[in-house]
């Protein structure tokens, strides 16, 4: 079922103060006016870690403790409008409403699948780009799949997002907004958002600083208080950043999109493999496990006739057993993309593949991905939306 929230019109990007976003994901609160310069983005409240918000309020002449009240309102109670924060003075609410929007993302379209258990939301950014978020309701959890970039530079052969390359990184605030949107969706069904996976559009470890700031904001006990262990960061194999992630204070989970057990095949599916081949990737994963004591999930998108053969399954089992990485494999039957020549194997073939990997002693789970009928593979709804005729602004 498709629900158009505001189509055919599209929201007008808000006119906002512009601030530079530095390479560490930190945001200067210097207000600026005029034409955006390269690297400048509008900033919203969701971009600000608690100390930054405190500084901003103090600069406005408000006591610093108001920042915690704001966090409690916008994250604890999921308030969508400053006007509802009646524990703040009216003048401060008015000042914030005029100078610091909560978010710069606008929902454009929402689709449901799996009997309403999967909801895909398409957002428009301040600069007219589109990103997707998927919220999945399970009996025991509610998981949001967040996008971290507009497009992606990695260019995996089977992925709709990678087709057009990378347009830009998302800001922390644009990622936080997706999480808050999913939390509101869950609350509307008397559920709570419990898990977050960075498996939407983009490569999180190529937008590292903003992604780690997202984790910090979500983890803050004054706000959503989202446990780091409920957050999974997925990478196609950015080896140096796997080492950086191991050194972070947050106990996030690491998922590595492997998709092939040898370099010849993986080079064709995940072009980043040419830069960081499998031996380097496995060494990085082993160091990550040794440093954190945490298990690595290897994701394996199963494609008919490409990487689903019996010999390939045995090679995968051997690779992982000999790697010494404490790991688990998630076999994910591919969500096909119309314009790409990859197909999902049969159910029998999928189960046989998983059983062969298990036989090598590697814990393996088949995960049938949600939302096939709404093109839940990352980037597909965006691709469809951009291909469709758009109304004149
Ligand atoms: S699968 Fe992930 S890393 Fe690969 S192109 Fe798509 S978004 Fe990028």
Automatic annotation (TrEMBL):
Positions of the catalytic residues: 132, 378
Source species: uncultured Thermomicrobiales bacterium
Organism superkingdom: Bacteria
GO molecular function, one term: tRNA binding
UniProt cofactor note: Binds 1 [4Fe-4S] cluster. The cluster is coordinated with 3 cysteines and an exchangeable S-adenosyl-L-methionine.
Keyword Electron transport: no
Protein family: Belongs to the radical SAM superfamily. RlmN family.
Protein name: Probable dual-specificity RNA methyltransferase RlmN
Residue numbers binding S-adenosyl-L-methionine: 202-203, 234, 257-259, 335
Subcellular location: Cytoplasm
Keyword RNA-binding attached: no
Coiled coil: none
Domain Radical SAM core as annotated: residue spans: 138-373
InterPro entries (alphabetical): Aldolase_TIM, Methyltransferase_A, RlmN_N, RNA_MTrfase_RlmN, rRNA_lsu_MTrfase_RlmN/Cfr, rSAM, rSAM_sf
Enzyme class at the top of the EC tree: transferase
GO BP annotations listed: rRNA base methylation; tRNA methylation
Keyword terms, alphabetized: 4Fe-4S, Cytoplasm, Disulfide bond, Iron, Iron-sulfur, Metal-binding, Methyltransferase, rRNA processing, S-adenosyl-L-methionine, Transferase, tRNA processing
Principal location class: cytoplasm
């Amino acid at each position: 079922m498709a629900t158009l929230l505001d189509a055919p019109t599209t929201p007008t990007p808000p006119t906002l103060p512009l601030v530079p976003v530095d390479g560490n994901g930190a945001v200067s609160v210097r207000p600026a006016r005029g034409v955006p310069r390269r690297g400048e983005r509008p900033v919203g409240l969701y971009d600000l870690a608690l100390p930054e918000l405190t500084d901003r309020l103090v600069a406005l002449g408000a006591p610093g403790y108001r920042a915690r009240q704001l966090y409690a309102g916008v994250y604890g109670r999921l308030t969508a409008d400053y006007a509802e924060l009646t524990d703040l003075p009216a003048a401060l609410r008015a000042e914030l409403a005029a100078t610091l929007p909560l978010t710069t993302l606008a929902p454009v379209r929402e689709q449901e699948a799996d009997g309403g258990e999967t909801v895909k939301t398409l957002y428009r950014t301040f600069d007219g780009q589109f990103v997707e978020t998927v919220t999945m309701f399970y009996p025991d959890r509610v998981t949001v799949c967040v996008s971290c970039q507009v497009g992606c530079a990695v260019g995996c052969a089977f992925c709709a997002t990678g087709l057009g390359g990378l347009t830009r990184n998302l800001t922390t605030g644009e990622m936080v907004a997706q999480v808050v949107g999913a939390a509101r969706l869950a609350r509307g069904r008397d559920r709570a958002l419990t898990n977050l996976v960075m498996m939407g559009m983009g490569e999180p470890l190529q937008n590292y600083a903003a992604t780690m700031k997202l984790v910090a904001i979500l983890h803050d006990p004054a706000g959503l208080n989202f446990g780091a262990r409920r957050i999974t960061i997925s990478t196609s194999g950015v080896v140096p950043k796997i080492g950086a992630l191991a050194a972070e204070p947050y106990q996030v989970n690491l998922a590595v999109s492997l998709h092939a057990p040898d370099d010849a095949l993986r080079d064709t599916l995940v072009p980043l493999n040419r830069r960081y081949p499998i031996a380097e990737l496995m060494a990085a994963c082993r160091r990550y496990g040794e440093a954190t004591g945490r298990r690595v999930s290897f994701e394996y998108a199963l494609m008919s006739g490409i990487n689903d053969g019996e010999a390939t399954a045995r090679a995968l089992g051997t690779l992982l057993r000999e790697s010494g990485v404490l790991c688990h494999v998630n076999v994910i039957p591919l969500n096909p993309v119309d314009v790409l020549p990859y197909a999902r194997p049969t159910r029998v073939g999928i189960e046989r593949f998983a059983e062969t990997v298990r036989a090598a002693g590697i814990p393996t789970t088949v995960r049938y991905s949600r939302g096939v009928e709404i093109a839940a593979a990352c980037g597909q709804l965006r691709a469809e939306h951009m291909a469709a005729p758009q109304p004149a602004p």
